[in-house]
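Fold it.
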Amino acid sequence: MTAPRTFATLLPAITGKALGRRGLAFGGLVAEWESIMGPRMAERTSPFRINFPQGQRENAVLHLRVATAVALDIQHLEPQIIERINTYFGYRAVARLKLIHATMIRPVHRGPHQRTLSAAETEAITRAAANIPDAGLSEAMVRLGRTLASSRKPGLPPPPNSRR
């Protein structure tokens, strides 16, 4: 039987095929794109490829998909965009952008269907968190309990590994 491993040790094997030669830096950039660029800019752009010079991990060219309607704006904002990206990386990872005109299609995120909880369910969740001495933590646990309970069908028992 193998010992438990941290997620960080498994990440390269999991993402290796998906990201190919682009590496983990590109994966982090894609995953954090909205927080790096802001929601408005992220819906009009998306990183496509990052090309580092041979044998280096800095001064890359970031190929950026952009909606054609905002390509000129993106071109004028290139220094600020590069600054944001390099701030994310913590070093001068990207030196310039190459814009690729594309239609931006964003998948619609639909969270799990939330149902309204009954008064008994709400009371049970509140009672379960009542013994927590820290008020902030207690409130957070109540919110978490409500979210989890509202995503399950009514009458279903809690997951098998949960506390009672």
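The two ends are 30 Å apart (CA to CA).
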